Amino acid sequence: MTVSIVIVSFNAREHLERCLEAVAGGAHEVVVVDNASADGSAALVRERFPSVKLVELDENIGFGAANNVGMAAASGDLFLLLNSDAWPVEDAIERLAAFAAERPRAGIVGPRLSNPDGSLQRSVRGWPTPWRLATEYLFLRRLGRRTRALNAFYGAGFDHGSVRAVEVVKGAVLLVRRVAYEATGGFDPAFFMYGEEMDLCYRVGRAGWEVVFDPGAEFVHVGGVSTGARWGERPSFGPMRREQLRGHLRFVAKHQGARSAERARHVLAAGLRLRALLFRGDAARAYGEAAAWLRSGSTAELLAGRG
After folding, report:
1. Which residues contact 102 (CB under 8 A, 6 or more apart)?
2. Does 304 score more than 50 pLDDT?
3. At 113, phi and psi to the nearest 5?
4. What's the predicted TM-score (pTM) here?
5. What per-residue confidence (pLDDT) applies to 130?
6. Which of 6-20, 130-144, 236-250 has the largest mean confidence?
7. Do 112 and 251 belong together in one domain?
8. Both 28 and 76 in a single domain?
């Protein structure tokens, strides 16, 4: 089975260069979709990696939509969707491809992810529901760290050491079977950033394919390079953090209905208001602004906005 590596990049030149040094010029087709970067990323690809197929977009259309563009331009039986700040460890790509060949009902395969220091980066998730959002945002999971009912959302009890079917694997590195992509239409472009892999994994599973975690292949992932949306680093409530919350609400509205989405909105607002009371300084202000934004309109109104 042939593998096409699809990399979506937005203002991540330094990390994109590291990524391409690891994957370009080898046996696999590489497609880079530049999401209207302003840092010279496209020029880097043209000058240093001439074997790479470069698709330059005139505007940032979002992560999922850009991946759709990349997959449409690729020729492989398998698509390795690789973040620009990720790269394989040794023969991880070949391991993933071999795993997919041995498990023909696997529509999506997620590998083991590591942080740059070698530590485990937890990458198995559950899709959001109002209850699961409550377990995270209202700190309920701390009441029973080994209880699946309280830890399904972020997969806190998952050992990341064995092959198994899962609900969601983190979108930093995904191996997607072409026929599963074609059967489901790929990513929903309504998810501009965040939640797009949850939605894709959900729809691939509903279409009868497996979503599988394979620890036999390992990739390093830096994280947060293009979005800068880590809540813990001089936090503020900006566009990317709104997209995080929209991702939760959009998924619930799409797959569980408007009433469930409204319940999810109230849960998120309460959880973020609680955090605003518990934290201090920039963090408290960011959480308070997020809670106020969630209370500023209905789910439908919040999803209709941008920025």
Report:
1. none
2. yes
3. -110, 140
4. 0.93
5. 98
6. 6-20
7. no
8. yes
